[in-house]
Amino acid sequence: MKYLRRTTAIAAALSCFAFAANAQNNDQSGETASNTQAGAQASYCDKPWSKVDGNSDGTVSKQEASTAIENQFGQIDSDGNGEITKVEWITCMGSIDQQAAAEADRDKQNFAEADTDKDTKINREEFRKSAEQAFQDTEAGSAGEDAFVVLRRYVFLTPEEGQDQSTLKNMSEDEAAGRSALTFSALDQNNDDTITTQEWSERSPKIKRDEDWANAQFKEIDGDGTGSITQEEYRTARQQMLDDQLTTGSTKSQGEAGAEGTASTSETASDSGDGIPVYIYRFGTM
Ligand SMILES: [Ca+2]
Ligand SMILES: [Ca+2]
Ligand SMILES: [Ca+2]
Ligand SMILES: [Ca+2]
């Protein structure tokens, strides 16, 4: 999927406003009626970090992944007819497009905390590991209030959630992982899978689920090109995203990082037997 994100990046940046308007029109047409009613619970379309790790053990089992995919599919298929039309897809992908994240104090000074190999870029793996560490520090409690300041640089908060500390302090690991993956994607404005100092310094990044991006994704997932997505097509696409990420991650580590890379590859391999660590799952499928 990475190449899709790259090729649509420029056009995508230009079409945000049109996309927001379109999503609104779809709302008015009644396409999202059942979706709006279901909005009382966390919906994937509003909160793409909604629960994946059902038993909160830090890994996503095959069964949990399967349940999450079914839930997501059901929420996107707002009329519940078993197929996702393009209107349903675009409405869902557009639903969080209109807001920017709450402010966080990312700047040139604290860039270094995630750029662990000091090549002046933060790659996906560096971001994932730093986000995970930031969450663990809040759990350990030894870093005190400062740990929450650091965590806030990684996890996506809506402007409303950013007004007090309660969301940040009550966050599960699963949720922190999902929100971090979303922040990575929001900060990586040019979709090249790395974050520059300048991209990192964006204090209030905007989600880019614009219409061009959504159209390209739809085309990719609708494998047989019938213009609607079946549950099987959706499942296959999600699995493919995860496989791509696991393959890219392990190839990169081996090639670039030597001994350290080998260690992270075997970590991935041994954990993927029954479940995939929740951070790897989230960063692979967001
Ligand atoms: Ca689990
Ligand atoms: Ca449908
Ligand atoms: Ca780096
Ligand atoms: Ca970038």
Automatic annotation (TrEMBL):
It holds the Pfam family EF-hand_5. It comes from the Bacteria. This is EF-hand domain-containing protein. Keywords: Metal-binding, Repeat, Signal. Residues 1-23 form the signal peptide. It comes from Roseibium salinum. Residues 64-99, 102-137, 209-244 form the EF-hand domain. Residues 245-254, 262-271 have a biased composition (Polar residues). The keyword Repeat applies. Residues 218-277 are annotated as: Disordered. Gene3D superfamilies: EF-hand. The keyword Repeat applies. PANTHER family: 45 KDA CALCIUM-BINDING PROTEIN, RETICULOCALBIN. InterPro entries: EF-hand-dom_pair, EF_Hand_1_Ca_BS, EF_hand_dom. SMART domains: EFh (SM00054).
